[in-house]
Amino acid sequence: MKKKGFLWFAVIIVIVAGALFFLLRKPAAETLKVGIVQIVEHPALDSAREGFIDLFTENGYIEGEKVTYQIQNAQGDMATANTIAQKFKNDNLDLILAIATPTAQAVANLIKDKPILITAVTDPVGAGLVASAEQPGTNVTGTNDLQPMEGQFKLAKELAPGAQRVGIIYNAGEANSVTQVRMAKEITGQLGLEVVEATVDTSAGVLQAAQSFIGRVDVIYVPTDNTVVSAFSSVLKVAEENKIPIIAGEENLVSQGALATVGVNYYRLGRQTAEMALKIIRDGAKPETMPIESQKDTELVINEDTAKAIGITIPASLRAKATIIRNQ
After folding, report:
1. Where are the alpha helices (DSSP H) in the chain?
2. Contact assessment for residue 188 and residue 200, using Cβ atoms and an 8 Å cutoff
3. Nearest-CA neighbor of 225 among 184, 271, 191, 186?
4. pLDDT in tens, 107-138
5. Measured distance CA(170)–CA(251) in Å, rounded
6. Which of 326, 287, 282 lies closest to 308, judged by CA?
7. CA distance 294 to 282
8. Chain centroid offset of residue 110 CA
9. Where is 299: in which H helix or E strand?
10. Phi and psi of 33, rounded to 5°?
11. Cα–Cα separations (whole angstroms), residue 170 to 167, 199, 210, 312, 320
12. What is the per-residue pLDDT for 8?
């Protein structure tokens, strides 16, 4: 009997010890699930994504250990963007990064209970994503890519002093582009420049739109329009053949052959957006009270190879303060 009683006692000790082990052990840290979606693949949006992920990594969110990413590309199609948004909702992600206006709208229209960080969105208020830039009032916050357009058009006049007409190609179906063209008209009017518009529905129409500017404009301005930027090589071909300077909305296009810009660096913009995301994840900040941020600094970038090819001399005053690059 004593032996039997000892065995029962030993069994009870093992059960109690096991229960205490499971109750007292430190729970394993959960892996953060982040969805990233962009409307189309091009260097600016890719750079924003890379900047976001790099800053997360630098802060200890190692992919596969502390964070997992679902990275999706809508390939310029809104139906695909909506499908991706539905997938993100079904997968119950912890955080979403939406790059560019159309994908931000697709995600924000469907997901209301998870933090959504946006970037490369020109006008979050006009796009219906937030109530105001200062107080978003929704589960959406992040960064805009509003360009210093006045500086860009002043730059056009400095590099092409005799310019009178500026051609702008854009997709009228992109809310961010409509905002930029409206702003461009206001600014160019004050600077004595005339805007000549050409609209496109898809990237396939960009070449024809650019060709319509031949003999009609002195400068081409390429805004941060996803449709046009994805087919920038078509604009560049026309500009090079006809020696028309291109002022770009962002610096990646200057690396590809545009003449110049004073603009946003999308890699840094992605990092800035990631900083905001970390405040939500680690500090408990609420998107609805986090103001939409603009890029903290911009940069003057001029492509020297392009300037030589189209016969433009870079003024010493600009050269002294610019980052001078060559074609990649």
Report:
1. 2-24, 43-58, 78-90, 101-110, 149-159, 175-191, 206-211, 226-229, 232-242, 251-256, 266-283, 304-309, 316-319
2. no
3. 184
4. 999 999 999 999 999 899 999 999 999 999 99
5. 18
6. 326
7. 22
8. 20
9. strand 299-303
10. -105, 115
11. 10, 5, 10, 26, 32
12. 52
Q: In this predicted structure, what is the pLDDT of residue 327?
A: 77
The token pair at 128 is 């219906």
The letter for the amino acid at 262 is V
Contact 257, 236 (CB under 8 A): yes
Provide the 3-class DSSP secondary structure of residue 325.
strand
Q: DSSP 3-state assignment of 140? A: strand
159 and 204 in contact (C-beta within 8 Å)? no
Q: Residue 30's pLDDT is what?
A: 79
**Among 78, 122, 84, CA closest to 100:** 122
CB atoms inside a 10 Å sphere around CB 126: 14
Ordered by start, the domain boundaries in the chain are: 32-145+266-289, 149-263+298-325
Residue ranges in the chain modelled with pLDDT below 50 = 1-2, 6, 11, 14, 16-17, 19-28
Q: Which CATH architecture has domain 149-263+298-325?
A: 3-Layer(aba) Sandwich (3.40)
**Environment class of 136 (CB within 10 Å of its CB; exposed 0-12, middle 13-18, buried 19+):** buried
φ, ψ (nearest 5 deg) of residue 237: -60, -50
Say how far residue 221 (Cα) sits from the centre of its chain. Answer: 19
CA distance 43 to 119: 14
C-alpha 47/C-alpha 273 separation (Å) is: 12
CA dihedral 165, 171, 174, 180 (to 10 degrees): -10
Residue whose pair of structure tokens reads 């400068």 in the numeric block: 219
Looking at the structure, give the CATH architecture of the domain made up of residues 32-145+266-289.
3-Layer(aba) Sandwich (3.40)
Per-residue pLDDT of 176-204, as tens digits, reads 899 999 999 999 999 999 999 999 999 99
